[in-house]
Design goal:
Strand content: 5-15%
Helix content: 40-55%
Structural class: alpha+beta
Radius of gyration: 22 Å
Bound molecules: zinc ion
Number of domains: 2
Largest sheet: 4 strands, antiparallel
Distance between the termini: 25 Å
Shape: elongated
Order of helices and strands: HEHHHEEHHEHHEEHH
Number of helices: 10
């Protein structure tokens, strides 16, 4: 088994995608690898206002449902949102779907008369923003400890640092691997077994309900990766795959030359 510890998550995912194609004729593709801190915070605030699927995170000002951001706080004109400069341009829309307008009176911000944000219009704007970006489950904050208007205290998204990568095609891949590999109990186990060969794992694939993210990949912690490498080399699985070794060499060279 090759040493993959120096490879980024994205590089490991590229290897895994090549492996899925060459070994199983299976197409797996990247949905999103990196996102900016601002983009992550936009996803997070929308998610925390509309849903909040997090088990342990709660916004500082909670709505009557006990989970999501309170509308009165979200639409408070005196609040400066963390990382999101003009929330009225993207989310805080008036009843007829126009960006709300702020004005300063005596040094205090308020909404201009007739230009107040509307809860339903804002809900629609945030819903379609998440849908366009295919964000269907939890979205972590753009900064550690979060910020206004949520202030849930959560950790920054691993997508910002490149520590996570979302891919599609895991379910079909699982069926292929299961069919062609002995000793695996289920398609889910088969995916995890295959990913571990590339030192990847899915920390949220076994969570219940909406918290489940079968597509979110991260680097397998080194101690598990070492264990798996020993196991894999005994079976001699990848050791005889010249194409993958070639890919690995090319990636190493690219890595070294910084391209
Ligand atoms: Zn938050």
């Amino acid at each position: 088994m090759a040493d993959l510890s120096h490879l980024s998550v994205k590089e490991r995912v590229d290897q895994m995608i090549a492996g899925a194609r060459e070994r199983f004729g299976c197409i797996v593709s990247i949905n999103q690898s990196k996102r900016s801190a601002e983009q992550a915070q936009q996803f997070h605030v929308c998610h925390m206002f509309l849903h909040n699927f997090f088990k342990k995170l709660k916004p500082k000002f909670v709505a009557g449902d006990g989970r999501t951001i309170q509308w009165e706080h979200l639409s408070d004109p005196g609040i400066a949102w963390a990382l999101i400069k003009n929330p009225e341009q993207s989310f805080l829309f008036t009843k007829i779907g126009r960006p709300a307008k702020r004005e300063l009176v005596g040094g205090r911000a308020r909404w201009a008369l007739g230009w107040e944000p509307d809860k339903d219009a804002t809900t629609r704007a945030m819903t379609s923003f998440l849908a366009r970006a295919h964000v269907t489950s939890m979205a972590a904050p753009g900064i550690d400890h979060c910020g206004e208007p949520c202030c849930c205290g959560g950790h920054a998204s691993k997508h910002i640092s490149g520590g996570a990568c979302d891919v599609s095609g895991m379910a079909i891949l699982g069926q292929h691997v299961l069919r062609e590999t002995r000793g695996l109990g289920s398609a889910e186990d088969a995916v995890d077994h295959f990913l571990a060969e590339y030192h990847l794992f899915r920390p949220m694939a076994r969570l219940p309900g909406k918290a489940r993210e079968a597509w979110h990949l991260e680097a397998l912690p080194a101690r598990h990766a070492r264990g798996h490498a020993r196991h894999a080399s005994h079976r001699g699985k990848r050791a005889h795959d010249p194409q993958l070794h070639l890919n690995l060499r090319v990636e190493r060279m690219e890595h070294r030359h910084g391209c």
